[in-house]
Design goal:
Elements: H1 13-34, E1 38-44, E2 55-61, E3 66-78, E4 94-99, H2 100-109, E5 114-120, E6 125-129, H3 136-146, E7 151-156, H4 167-188, H5 207-218, H6 227-233, H7 235-247, H8 250-259, E8 261-269, E9 272-279
Parallel strand pairs: 3-5
Antiparallel strand pairs: 1-2, 2-3, 4-7, 5-6, 8-9
Helix pairs in contact: 2-3, 6-7
């Protein structure tokens, strides 16, 4: 039986990538037409391309111009028609090869949510993969590096077809990635808010004022309250913060309102109070 000939493209990589970027722009424009109450701003991350980051996507609410979400994109495009796997454990998925160094950066180094985008040019379709939520990558990355391979495959669900009807699912994946990645990177190394920074807690000043100033100065797009600082330097203060939140302190509520808190989870264990604040 004759082997099926591989598809060849007469275009170089940069031309294919440019077409993928145009296709993504068209899909985003279709999303904008449905979600008229938001702005979707795509910004080039040219300086980050060597690390596998192509764009920043910011979702801004109208009319107050409030940033709801901010994430990074790695965009790849292909002139070959995508076909699903038929014989592996990942049957029904698309596969795409990604370098080990980019996988490591996405999983262990970048503190921001990143979504992998694959543009199917022949069919004019765009798919996404929440690569930071792919738990299989950690073990496979380790095995690949041991065997001195340079890349591994990721497996993309065809259901993740980006468009107006799936946009909320896309945003949900970005939100979950944001939470998971922030704390994963914090566990792997120094907290990304304070790493390589000359920041010290001044115990003579209100902690929340210092956090406000730190976030505003370092990373305008950060929407997390750094629990690392609260628990590391002011464990007793955490109890006070918890008390004021539950009793409706105007001061604390004003601060939380500024951070646009969307999840406040409190639970008790053996008489001790724990507070988790995840912010959008």
């Amino acid at each position: 039986m004759a082997k099926k000939k591989k598809q060849k493209s007469d275009r170089d990589t940069s031309e294919i990538q440019d077409s993928g970027n145009v296709l993504l722009d068209n899909v985003l424009e279709a999303i904008r037409k449905k979600f008229t109450d938001i702005k979707i701003i795509k910004t080039s991350e040219e300086h980050q391309k060597d690390r596998g980051v192509d764009f920043q996507l910011e979702i801004v609410g109208k009319p107050k111009e409030e940033t709801f979400d901010m994430l990074k994109l790695q965009v790849k495009a292909t002139d070959k028609t995508l076909s699903t796997l038929n014989t592996t454990a990942n049957k029904g998925f698309f596969s795409y090869q990604v370098s080990n160094r980019h996988i490591r950066y996405y999983q262990y180094e970048i503190p921001w949510p990143l979504i992998f985008i694959l543009c199917d040019l022949p069919n004019q379709k765009v798919y996404w993969h929440a690569i930071q939520l792919d738990d299989s990558l950690q073990e496979r990355l380790y095995e690949s590096e041991i065997k001195k391979h340079r890349s591994i495959q990721i497996f993309i669900d065809p259901k993740n077809l980006l468009g107006p009807d799936t946009f909320l699912n896309f945003v949900h994946d970005a939100e979950i990635s944001k939470q998971a990645q922030f704390f994963r990177v914090s566990d792997e190394k120094l907290n990304p808010l304070t790493e390589k920074q000359d920041f010290k807690v001044d115990r003579s000043k209100p902690l929340l004022d210092q956090l406000y100033e730190l976030l505003e100065y370092l990373y305008e797009e950060v929407k997390y309250l750094p629990l690392y600082l609260l628990t590391q330097h002011f464990h007793s203060k955490l109890q006070t913060v918890l008390h004021h939140i539950t009793t409706g302190s105007d001061y604390i509520l004003k601060m939380i309102s500024w951070w646009r808190c969307w999840l406040l989870l409190m639970f008790n264990l053996t008489g001790e109070s724990y507070l988790l604040i995840a912010l959008s």
